[in-house]
Each structure stands twice: as C-alpha cells, then as structure tokens.
Amino acid sequence: CRITFNYRYSPHRAKMWEILRSGEIGELTSVDFHWYLDTSHGADYFRRWHRLVEKGGSLWVHKASHHFDLLNWWIQSDPESVYALGDLQFYGKNGPFRAENCRNCPHTKACDFYWDITKDQRLKRLYVDNEKYDGYHRDGCVFRNDVNIYDKMAATIKYMNGVQVAYSLTTYSPYEGYRIAFNGTKGRMDAWIQESNPTTDANYDEIVVARNFGRREYIQIPQGSGHGGGDKLLKDQVFIPGTPDPLKQAAGVRDGALACLVGIAARKSIAAKDKIYIKDLTTIIPQEKKI
Predict the structure, then answer these.
(1) Within a 10 A sphere around the Cβ of 163, how many other Cβ atoms?
(2) 75 part of a folded domain
(3) Could you list the pLDDT tens digit for every one of the 291 residues in the chain?
(4) Domain check: are 260 and 164 in the same one?
(5) 110 lies in a domain?
(6) In terms of domains, do 86 and 103 share one?
C-alpha cells in the first residue's frame, strides 16, 4: 500500500535529501523547521471542518503530518519523543466579530477575511448548491466560537538517532512558505522556500550549503508547478510500473503512521504538559535507522 506524500517529490526537497546523504555537512545533529501559512490558505482551515479537532485531529495531524513525514524521510530515522506547545490566539473566539458564514455576515465590509464563495462557479456548484442536503458551509466564519484547534504550534522532536528538531507552524502569516536549516558536524544547509507573496521575483528555490571553515555554495533549483514540480514525479512512480526510486521517496503505511503519530504526540503533549514517547502510542517499534 502506498501513501502519496507528494512533498517528498519536489525537486528542491529531493536535492536536500541528496545533500544530507552525501555527507557535505557531516553527521546531522539538529534541524530548525518553521512553516508559515498565509491569511488565505491558513485561514481556509478555520473556515472548514478542519477547525474542529474532533473532525480533523487539529493541524498537528491534518497539515503538519506532511511536514513530519519530510523530517522522517530527510533524517532517515524514526521519531522517539515530542514535547509541544500550542494555542488559539488569532482565529475563533479571538476575532472582533463573527457570524455563521460569510454570506450571512453583517460585517462583510469590515472583515479582512470576507470571501464570496458564489463568485467561484465550481465551488458554488460543489458546496453552495448542496447545502440544502448536508448543511455544510464551505465559507464558514474564521471567528466562529466553535473553533477549537490551535493556530500557533511549536514542538521539540527527538529522533532515535539523536537528531533534535525545533519545529513551528504559524497559520496567520502575510506570506506562505518555510525556513529550514540542517545543522551538521561539518557545516549547515539552509533554505527559505517561498510559496505565496514572495519577497523576491526569483523563479527558483535556493539552497545554501555552508561548510565549517570553508566555502559557501548556492544551489538554485528551478520551480515547477504542482507542489514545486513534485506531483508529476509522484504520479509517474505510482502509475508507471518499474519507475526507479533512488531517493526512497515511495512511502508506505508505516511512514504514514509515524508522520501522524508525531502530530498526535504533540497534541497529547500539550494536554499533558509533558514529553510524549512515540512507543507509548503504538505497536510500531521506532528504529534508529529508518526501515
């Protein structure tokens, strides 16, 4: 069984995997990984069913599991423990006003998050025209009082091979993308991947490899469509028999479970105010070297 983690296939992420395996920065010791969702994409999770932890498991699971899979794949080890913090400080009850959904809101002129779903005919046919059957509002208010997921999150993740990760997710940023740094015994690899409202007009993703007491290298990866160019590569591997997998991008059920378990552990850590061990949540035995 395959889990289609498409983030693994983006060319710049594949290049990071190759650099890590090459030993360019020595033995990996820690990772700094910070993801920013903007006020369009990020807000959209708070309009929909994802806003309810009982429906989507929170963004720790629904969104961040993709990020945790990347970490598991890059680090090539299983997660051991998670200590996390999280809070709801922007959306939900924190808004200045609220309504059931955007179309029925008296604050449309004052709200920066007002969205007229009826202007998109595809979404109108898919959602609005069917509300009479299921009662689901795709354009729900981001400030509804029933929002009960976190909109800011941070975690420290320890891996079985000793690598430590500092991770965070912010859902109300003016731009979207992520900053990541891999720290090794011989150097460091950095990237600032911008996905919306970029600060430059560059049509490439840049990876910087800095060596201790040595030179710095700038690697530019052309940007592609469909998750950075990864979607086509994923589809080829899924649907074309015999497609090679030299970067171990094909993910299985175990990979999917471990990615979700990091998010579940983070959620439980916040509730318990304590470190949570992955082994205590599953029959899967975490390994120092990825299976």
Answers:
(1) 23
(2) yes
(3) 889 999 999 999 999 999 999 999 999 999 999 999 999 999 999 999 999 999 999 999 999 999 999 999 999 999 999 999 999 999 999 999 999 999 989 999 999 999 999 999 999 999 999 999 999 999 999 999 999 999 999 999 999 999 999 999 999 999 999 999 999 999 999 999 998 888 888 889 999 999 999 999 999 999 877 777 888 899 999 899 889 999 999 999 999 999 999 999 999 999 999 999 999 999 999 999 987
(4) yes
(5) yes
(6) no
Our measurement of the distance from residue 146's CA atom to the centroid of its chain's CA atoms, rounded to an integer in Å, reads: 23
Classify the C-alpha dihedral 13-18-19-23 as positive or negative. Answer: positive
CA distances from 83 to 11, 182, 251 (A): 31, 20, 25
**Domain containing 69: what range?**
22-92+148-224+252-280
Q: Look at the pTM and tell me if it is higher than 0.85.
A: yes
- Phi, psi dihedral angles at 18 (to 5 degrees): -65, -40
- The CATH number linked to 183 is 3.30.360.10
